[in-house]
Write a structure and sequence with these properties.
Number of strands: 7
Structural class: alpha+beta
Helix content: 55-70%
Distance between the termini: 19 Å
Largest sheet: 5 strands, antiparallel
Number of helices: 8
Radius of gyration: 33 Å
Order of helices and strands: HHEHHHEEEEHHEEH
C-alpha cells in the first residue's frame, strides 16, 4: 500500500529556515565580504567626479536687451574661441584649455557636438536653480580661473552694451532734434538708456555672477555602491545556502 503524503510536507517551516540561515551566517558572510571587496576595488580604481557651480543672472540691462537675450549673448561668448583666446592672452598661466569645455570637437576631420559629460565645464539651467556654469573639478585654482573667465565675458558684454546704448542715444537725438516732438515712449526709452549707461560706467555689471560653490563629489556614490554590494552579496549567500541545504537534504532522503 502506497504511503499517503501529508499536504503539509512541502510547506516551508519558518523555524527551520531561520535555523538554517543562522547556522550558515558565516557562509553568507563570505559572499558579503567578496561583494564588498569587489566594490571596494572598483571604488579605488575609479576616478572621482566632482561638481561646482557658478550661478549667474541678469542684473543691469539696457532697454533694448531683455534677460533671455543677455543670457544668450553670454552663452555665445562663453563658447566662442576668439573670446577665449582674447582672455587667454592676458591669462597665459591659466591651465584652462578651450578644447576642455568647447561644445564641439573634430573627429577624423569632421566637426561633431560633444556630450556634456565629456566637457570640463558647460552652461546649464534649471527651472528652480537658475543659470550656472557647471564645472566638473575639485581643483579650487581651476574653479577660480573659470570664474575669472566668466567675469571677463561679463565685462565684454557690458562694454558692448554701453557702446550700443550710446549709438541708440545718438540715433534718437539725431531723429528728434526737439524734445517736444518725442512721444512719452521715446522719452522713457531715452531715459532708460541713459540710466543704463550711467550705472554701467559707475561699475554695475550686466550679469551678477556668484563665485563657485565648494565642489561636491557626485560619482562614484560610495555609500550607495557599498550598500548595494552588501545587499546583493547577502542575497547571493542566502540563495546559495538554501540551495546547498536543499541538495544535502535530498541526498539524505535518497540515502534513507
Amino acid at each position: 500500500m502506497s504511503e499517503i503524503r501529508s499536504p503539509y510536507d512541502d510547506e516551508i517551516d519558518l523555524f527551520e529556515l531561520f535555523a538554517v540561515l543562522w547556522d550558515g551566517k558565516w557562509f553568507i558572510g563570505v559572499f558579503v565580504a567578496v561583494a564588498l571587496s569587489i566594490s571596494g576595488g572598483v571604488l579605488l580604481v575609479k576616478d572621482a567626479v566632482y561638481e561646482s557651480k557658478l550661478t549667474y543672472e541678469a542684473a543691469n540691462l539696457p532697454p533694448f536687451v531683455d534677460q533671455a537675450a543677455a543670457l544668450s549673448d553670454f552663452r555665445t561668448m562663453f563658447y566662442a574661441k576668439d573670446t577665449f583666446d582674447s582672455w587667454k592672452s592676458v591669462n597665459e598661466t591659466s591651465r584652462i584649455l578651450f578644447k576642455d569645455f568647447s561644445n564641439a570637437t573634430f573627429i577624423d576631420g569632421i566637426l561633431v557636438s560633444k556630450d556634456e559629460d565629456d566637457m570640463l565645464a558647460n552652461l546649464s539651467s534649471k527651472k528652480n536653480g537658475g543659470n550656472f556654469v557647471l564645472v566638473r573639478s575639485n581643483d579650487l585654482v581651476l574653479l577660480n580661473e573659470f570664474f575669472l573667465y566668466a567675469a571677463y565675458i561679463n565685462h565684454m558684454l557690458k562694454s558692448n552694451y554701453i557702446s550700443r546704448a550710446k549709438d541708440e542715444l545718438e540715433m534718437i537725438e539725431a531723429r528728434f532734434n526737439d524734445a517736444g516732438t518725442m512721444s512719452d515712449k521715446v522719452i522713457q526709452n531715452l531715459l532708460a538708456t541713459d540710466r543704463f549707461i550711467v550705472t554701467a560706467e559707475k561699475g554695475a555689471d550686466v550679469l551678477s555672477i556668484q563665485r563657485p560653490t565648494f565642489p561636491i563629489k557626485i560619482s562614484p556614490k560610495s555609500s550607495l555602491i557599498l550598500a548595494l554590494s552588501i545587499l546583493l552579496g547577502g542575497m547571493a549567500g542566502v540563495v546559495s545556502l538554501l540551495l546547498r541545504n536543499a541538495i544535502r537534504k535530498r541526498k539524505g532522503q535518497a540515502a534513507a
